[in-house]
Amino acid sequence: MSNPKTVEEYIAYHIYIPTPEYKLDKWGVYHTNTINRDFSNCCLEKQKAEYVAESKRDKQLPSRKTCLFVCDLPNVRYWYNYFEKHIAKGRTILICRLKLTGLLFWTYASYFTMETYWNPDLPPVEKEGLFDGEYEVEEVYNSVDGFPQ
Q1: Measuring CA to CA, how many Å separate 36 from each of 21, 40, 100?
Q2: What is the tens place of the pLDDT at every residue in 127-140?
Q3: Per-residue pLDDT tens digits for 98-134
Q4: How far apart are CA 27 and CA 21, in angstroms?
C-alpha cells in the first residue's frame, strides 16, 4: 500500500498544456489551493469515474479535484506521449521540473477505475503522483526531445 508522504523540496515533474488561464512560469511559486477541477469538460463516463473515485478516497489523501498531478523522472516520457496521443490535439505540451513541499501520494493511473487506485500494491506501469501543497517551477521544457534524461 502506498501511503501519503510529507515532502520538502522534492523533485517531480508536471506535464501540461498551457492555456491563457493556466500557465506556469519558471521560478514561479504556486499552491494547489488554487486548483478546483469539476471535470465538466470530460466525457460523461470520465465524470462518473471521477465522482466514484472521490467518494472512495480516504480523506487523508490528496483529492483528484484539487491536486497537482505529477510524475517522477522515469515516467516523464510515458506521460508526455500519453498527452500527445490522447489530450494535446496539436497543442503545445510543456514539462515542468518542480520542487514540491507538501503531501504527495503515489498511485498508478491504470488502477483509476478500480478499488486499488487508493490502495496500490502492484508494480507500476504509469505511476502518477497526486500532490497537495506548494510547488516551485525550477525549469520548463518545450518538448520531450529537449528534455534531459
Answers
A1: 13, 11, 19
A2: 889 999 999 999 99
A3: 999 999 999 876 655 555 555 656 455 678 899 999 9
A4: 18
Give 6's pLDDT tier (boundaries 50, 70, 90). very high
Q: Summarize pLDDT for 12-37 with one digit per residue, the tens.
A: 999 999 988 889 999 999 999 998 88
Which run of H or E residues covers position 9? strand 5-16
Name the residue type at position 80. Y
Q: What whole-number distance in Å separates Cα of residue 68 and Cα of residue 135? A: 9
Q: Among 61, 64, 68, which Cα is nearest to 4's?
A: 61
Cα–Cα dist 92/84, whole Å: 9
CB of 89 within 8 A of CB of 66? no
Q: Tell me the three cell numbers of residue 90.
A: 496539436
Residue 42, C-alpha cell as written in the block: 470530460
**Do 103 and 13 meet the contact criterion of CB atoms below 8 Å apart?**
no
Query: What is the spatial distance between Cα 45 and Cα 17, in angstroms, rounded to a whole number?
Result: 22
**Which amino acid makes up residue 21?**
E
